[in-house]
Input
Amino acid sequence: MGKKWMGFVGAVLCCLVMVSLSQAGGQKPPTGTVAINGLVWLKNANCFGEKTWDEAKADAASLHTGMCGLTDGSAAGQWRLPTARELQSLSSYLGQLDNKPQSMIYWSSEESTHFNESAVAVNITNYGIVEILIRKRFHVLPVHNP
Output
């Protein structure tokens, strides 16, 4: 092989080693999020405290980098309340959230189909669905699609 070819191969190997070293441990820097079941969840399960349903929807929609420990580059409007089914899917993953949930009940994005001025929430101790008046105050756990 010629000297030019050897120099090229050496440069490529050097770059590969640098990339490997930068990815050592396979860890990404913390972003304040956790990926579970194909969705991106806010890692801080208690960032907003207890809110009415309307406040919860507004807080989730306004979430952005710089709030609640987020450093992922997300912008307001990307986040939302999860559906009841999405909340139920967390049953095996609560240990991945920071600030373990303090409340048993978290708001979903769904309105009640049975009661006026009510919305659907999920009791995360047993993953049962409850329909509650929207003026009651429960926790918020925003989510967005990747």
